[in-house]
Amino acid sequence: MGSPFFIGGNDMRVIAIDYDGTASDHPKKVNALYDNQANFIVINTARPEYLREETKKELKELGIKYHALNMEKIRADIYIDDKNCGGLRWPKIVKPKYSSSQEDSTATSSKE
């Protein structure tokens, strides 16, 4: 069985778009991509599978058009991917993620 992402043929571009904070905030942009028949739109979310129907309802209420919905995307703070819009970019990650109170105390002690 072939990949469901090649329904329209190998010439289709598969575009995965994060839901919360991305597609949900920019439905017109998602729909413009969907309206291009060369695109196959996958809404990607880290929401658990049990929220699929609720998520589909929200997508419908927002008027967001899509071909597939991918639940349980891995949760990460940073995604590094060669297919990233604009190409592969390696972020400069020097400090571990701290809470704001830890950051403030570190900044204060380094000034002394």
Helices, strands, pairings?
Layout: E1 13-18, H1 19-23, H2 27-35, E2 39-44, H3 52-62, E3 68-70, H4 100-111
Parallel strand pairs: 1-2, 2-3
User: Helix coverage percent of residues?
Assistant: 25-40%
The SSE order reads: EHHEHEH
User: How far apart are the termini?
Assistant: 64 Å
CATH first level: which class? Alpha Beta
- Overall shape: globular
Count of runs of 4 or more consecutive helical residues: 4
CATH architectural grouping: 3-Layer(aba) Sandwich
Structural class: alpha/beta
Q: Domain count, please report it.
A: 1
Description:
- By secondary structure, the protein is an alpha/beta fold.
- It has one domain (4-111): Rossmann fold (3-Layer(aba) Sandwich), CATH 3.40.50.
- Helices cover 33% and strands 13% of the residues.
- It contains four helices and three strands.
- The longest helix has 12 residues, at 100-111.
- The model is unreliable at 103-112 (pLDDT under 50).
Features:
single chain, 112 residues, alpha/beta, Rossmann fold, three-stranded parallel sheet, globular, disordered C terminus
Outline:
With 112 residues, this protein is of the alpha/beta class.
